[in-house]
TrEMBL record:
Pfam family, one: DUF7453
Highest taxon listed in the record's lineage: Bacteria
Native source organism of the sequence: Aeoliella mucimassa
Protein name: PEP-CTERM protein-sorting domain-containing protein
Amino acid sequence: MTRSSLYLKDSIEAVVIAGLLTCFLARLATADVPVLLTPIALVGDAAAGLEDVVYTSYPIWSRSSSDGRLTWQADLSNGQEGIWVYDVLGSRPIALAGPGAEYESFYNQGSGFINSLGQVTLVSERGADQDIVVIDGESKTIVLSTDEQAPGLAPGISISPGSVGVSISDGGIVSFRRTLDGPGITTDNDNSWWIGPVNNPQVLLREGDPAPGLPGDQIGGLVSGFSKNDAGYAAVPDSLQSGRRAIWAGVPGDVQLVASEGAPVPGFPEQFFGSFINQLAQVSSSNEVVFRSRIVDASSQPVGDALFVGGPGNLSSVLATGDPSPFGEGETIQTIGTPSLNRVGKALVTATLESENGNTRGVLMSFDLDDPMDASLIVEVGDIAPGTDTAITSLPGGYINDRGDVLFSARLAGFGPANFGHGYWLKPADRPTQVVSFEGQTIDFLEQGKLVQRDLRTSGIPTGLSEMGTVGVLLSFEQGGGGLFLAQINPIPEPSTSILLVVAVSCVALLRRR
């Protein structure tokens, strides 16, 4: 065979190799792949940062920050309990409680909330008293204690044990809801929302105080649908002592009414705010409040739902029952779910859409608040859930981060009780959806250098979605045990990377033949 014919044969083989690689990589780019799961803390593992001690319990809870840090609490073989942080430096304990430890015990509901500054909240218990603490590296700041005078309130009034809604923003603003104790405190004035810097929290709203913007009415029992942005601007839905509900927004000393049940709806002639569904309001980085409300007519009969955005005296509807669908001509919006909001003005909502012939479909979609018609369809009821051969039957909702990655939950067909057939999926902004975890899934992961395979007993409990697209998830196994995992987007090759890889492999094939 001549040299030129050898070159021709090599070239043909290289083209064939390139074609096969291109097909393989194209298939990979659209494959139903799972996220990458990395074990962080499993039952029976050596406890990070401690000697001769192992985790004896599944993590009691886990939280996450916007930059991907994780916290968790677990029991230890030495009789103590601890709180750990996982970040780029690895895992380490930040607080221990129990025999011989710094703290007596932890109150679970308020502990472990972490921000991108590395500040972590802790509610420690000492006998009948509690301290709300913020840990910042080696420093610890006591925000409020139950046995001390509550700042800004009448002498002798203190906060009671039992923190609800504790969180800390990326701007270092802490917030929490506490009941009060002391002279003159009754069940009609003992609830309070607090917000402010770690060293100076103040009362935002207190039960029994005059309701801003509603003369003659008083703040009611205070609910848990509170939210704040990084700067500390807050939105608070609440029930009034008259029985109505309302939403306020602002900062301590300057709280204003946003909307109240029975008030006229801007842009909806002769229609009024009905119930604020789920009593949940969210606030954007630009201090805009986002909430969902039932709309009623003058006889209090419901006429639909709407999603609103704005502030005191400046509300507008973003989506409403009867509005055109962003996805199909002649299709309209029938129902709207509770929104999830990121920090750059994009919302994630579930919705039911109806066609002209009366057919309906449930969808999960994302859109900019200032242009809801420019929406992205994330997933639809009836789709086959990635990583399974089963159809999605319902979409409870999800999270969206600033770059547009979406973590959503879904229920699958063919399962019985409500606690079964549930799972979580991650839709990166720039690639196909990847499965995080679902009940009955078999997962593979590396533990101490060995490949381990386990069957999931539950769908897992995600801790939220970071700006890098990572998710902390608590998983339990049919074989026993479980723990905290870090779920990361699987790095499927980009098209440009795939082309370079094809060229490189093809060139290597040619060189090896010469």
